Amino acid sequence: MAESTEHRSDPHDDERVDERVDARVERTRRALQQAALELARAGRFDTATVAEITEAAGVNRSSYYQHYDDRDTLLADAIDAAEVEAVAGFPHPTRVPDRLPPEMIAFLAHFDADADLYRRLLGERGSPIVAARIRERFQQQAREGVVSSGTTAFEGMPIDIVAAGIAGSCLAVVHAWLELDPRPSVETAAEWVWRTLVGPGEPL
Questions:
Q1: Which CATH superfamily is domain 13-69 in?
Q2: PANTHER family, from UniProt (predicted)?
Q3: What does DSSP assign to residue 101?
Q4: How far is 164 from 21, CA to CA, in rounded Å?
Q5: What is the distance between the alpha carbons of residues 44 and 47, in angstroms, rounded to a whole number?
Q6: Where in the chain is the domain with CATH 1.10.10.60?
Q7: 91-149: per-residue pLDDT in tens?
Q8: φ, ψ for residue 30 (rounded to 5)?
Q9: Full-model pTM
Q10: How far, in Å, CA of 74 to CA of 36, rounded?
């Protein structure tokens, strides 16, 4: 009997195709995010057209609409990526450290480098979605801090309510710091945020 010559597909071929597609998608998203960030830094994002954004990103209009339904989400994703990059290389602790961690200083240094942009984003006419994303990051850290510290200062209050209150305070501290003229150092601001984050009167 003749040996069958039926082609059997290699499952690894599909995996490699998926990896190439994923990499292409990620490159397109990063190009759009970088373009949005640069336009925002120049104070032009709010008035930029989709054509101007895609031209700056080096992609076509259809690629924009494949990835984003609205410009606010695009800018929020761009800010997220920039903030993640700012603290890249720092380990994520399993509990809140006993003292001000270096990643907090790096995080605030990122705000300092883009102070004009963040003043606009966190101001009265800023971006609610960007502010919400930043608040959410503080909220996660606050929740971890309250739980790991074992503090009884908030006994009887739901942890999510406590974390939300602390996160809102941290965001207010950052915004107020950015508005100061002259603006205190990053280290000073990081200490303010850290003291707000770990709770009143009970340093970890």
A1: Homeodomain-like (1.10.10.60)
A2: ACREF/ENVCD OPERON REPRESSOR-RELATED, ACREF_ENVCD OPERON REPRESSOR-RELATED
A3: -
A4: 38
A5: 6
A6: 13-69
A7: 665 566 667 888 889 999 999 999 999 999 998 888 899 999 989 988 988 888 788 77
A8: -65, -35
A9: 0.77
A10: 7
